[in-house]
Amino acid sequence: MSRAARTARSNAAGPEPQYLKVKNHLREGIASGHWVAGDLLPSEGALVAQFEVSRMTVNRALRELVQEGLIERVQGVGSFVAQLHRISSTLNVRDVHEEIVERGHAYESRVHALTRGKATPQQAAELGMKRCAPVFLSLITHLENGHPIQCEERVVNPACAPDYLAQDFTRLTPTHYLLDVAPLSEARYMIEAALPGEVEARLLGISRRAPCLVVKRITYSRGVAVTSVKLTHPGARYQLQGSFSA
């Protein structure tokens, strides 16, 4: 899109609210690592002067960042980048290895693909990237007592996990690794009943007509999308259980 077209589109949509300019400036600085956990952010007065807005506008931007868990405010001191606290596994961003071991069963994984790729339009939209941007791709089957119970198709943002392709995912799961290198701050889910595709049916050893439980999830760290994953489970072999808490 040309610069003129972008300008026209922006004008048609109306000017960006002033508080969003402040909020996005701080969010992007945190996401890029310019400010890290514990850092003191610019004062309200400094932000008022920098953006030439009212103190009320700055206060709204800071208040929304607090609500999103990205910053903490200390009265009389200032605003700090929040410490990342891993969300409890009861949120169901769980390691399938741990689930199987908790049941007293034997865990095994088979890595079918671990490679570089280019983001499709859908993957780019999910991860907030440009189309055809470099991504990491993996396809793994997880087994319980020798029976496949989960087909994991994953796309990873290389900026969040640059060493992803160097991992041995027969020894640890992608979930375990990614939670360590990019601590979770947010997750979005979609759960549906569906029939398996050709690849999922073959890897899970089931019929194309066998009902499956499919979980699609995007996880974020400091407001940046880390990974998008599709988890396909044979309906006859798997139950989704848990609660939600932080």
TrEMBL record:
PROSITE patterns: HTH_GNTR (PS50949). SMART domains: HTH_GNTR, UTRA. The keyword Transcription applies. Residues 16-84 form the HTH gntR-type domain. The keyword Zinc does not apply. GO terms for biological process: L-histidine metabolic process; negative regulation of DNA-templated transcription. It comes from the Bacteria. Keywords: DNA-binding, Transcription, Transcription regulation. One of its GO terms (molecular function) is DNA binding. NCBIfam families: his_ut_repres. This is Histidine utilization repressor. It comes from Pelomonas aquatica.
